[in-house]
Design goal:
mainly alpha
Amino acid sequence: MAPADQTRKAQTSRAKADDTASRLVAWYDAHHRELPWRVTPREHARGVRPDPYRIWLSEVMLQQTTVEAVKSYFRAFVEKWP
């Protein structure tokens, strides 16, 4: 394959990857679940950043049970031990 063909193929692949990524982010923005440890796209746009402690805590809790079950335990835990 000629170098120009390789470059064109790489650019096409990159464009497809960028399009796929943009579509996935748009889907997430429209359909994400509200979780107490997650910063929403709207909050992120306002400058709110994820809290590593809250993320770690949710990961530990999620090893043991489902997301729905963890939500209430997570809220109670961070109320008592922020």
